[in-house]
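Re: that backbone. Tokens:
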């Protein structure tokens, strides 16, 4: 009987591990699927969003570097949780303890500076809501700064040296994704600019005429500003 119990427990552990291994790639894909929908909805290059989510939450999984939706960063310390439940439980505990500056989800949206844009912390964890906000914020920064590389740096920080370091990581990641077929799904601007140049930022102009309100700094600024995105898209 004891042997049967041990064998039963061992088999149950094996099944659980196999289930986790199967679920992990599917979980990692949540960020890319959300990024694709956000790219289409907000007219942001898909490779920009895929690069950002990897710089923010990427880790090696089954030999591939992939983003992770249940990632949390608290004052510079990163955590990758196996499940949404574990991640939310951790945030609940630190929130109860008084923490307010922490980053959530696929695009590591900071609660202190951007939390009011969401219905709840639960909503911030939703990969699609997380990606949609990141896309709108990046598009706003692009309208201000004129390139996706500069927008990526400002997404992280307005401090020049921090922004520059982040921009370098973003540029490298975007270049690595250049040949990925996923970057050609739903975006003309993924690998080349609209003019067909090697510069992915070339010739692209935002076409949305709506006004968006975002925080002017991902980390430190409480000031909100209004940007009217009135430029029209360059015609082919």
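Recovered sequence:
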């Amino acid at each position: 009987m004891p042997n049967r119990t041990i064998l039963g427990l061992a088999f149950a552990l094996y099944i659980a591990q196999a289930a986790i291994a199967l679920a992990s790639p599917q979980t990692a894909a949540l960020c890319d699927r959300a990024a694709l929908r956000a790219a289409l909805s907000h007219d942001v290059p898909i490779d920009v969003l895929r690069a950002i989510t990897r710089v923010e939450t990427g880790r090696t999984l089954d030999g591939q570097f992939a983003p992770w939706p249940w990632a949390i960063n608290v004052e510079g310390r990163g955590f990758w949780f196996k499940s949404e439940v574990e991640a939310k439980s951790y945030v609940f505990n630190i929130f109860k303890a008084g923490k307010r500056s922490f980053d959530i989800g696929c695009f590591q949206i900071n609660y202190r500076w951007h939390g009011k844009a969401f219905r709840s912390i639960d909503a911030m964890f939703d990969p699609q809501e997380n990606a949609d906000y990141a896309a709108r914020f990046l598009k706003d920064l692009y309208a201000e700064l004129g390139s996706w590389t500069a927008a990526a740096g400002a997404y992280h920080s307005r401090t020049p040296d921090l922004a520059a370091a982040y921009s370098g990581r973003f540029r490298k990641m975007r270049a690595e994704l250049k040949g990925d077929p996923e970057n050609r799904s739903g975006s003309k601007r993924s690998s080349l600019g609209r003019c067909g140049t090697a510069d992915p930022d070339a010739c692209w102009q935002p076409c949305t005429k709506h006004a968006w309100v975002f925080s002017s700094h991902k980390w430190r600024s409480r000031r909100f500003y209004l940007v009217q995105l009135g430029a029209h898209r360059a015609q082919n």
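The two ends are 75 Å apart (CA to CA). The longest helix spans residues 2-42.
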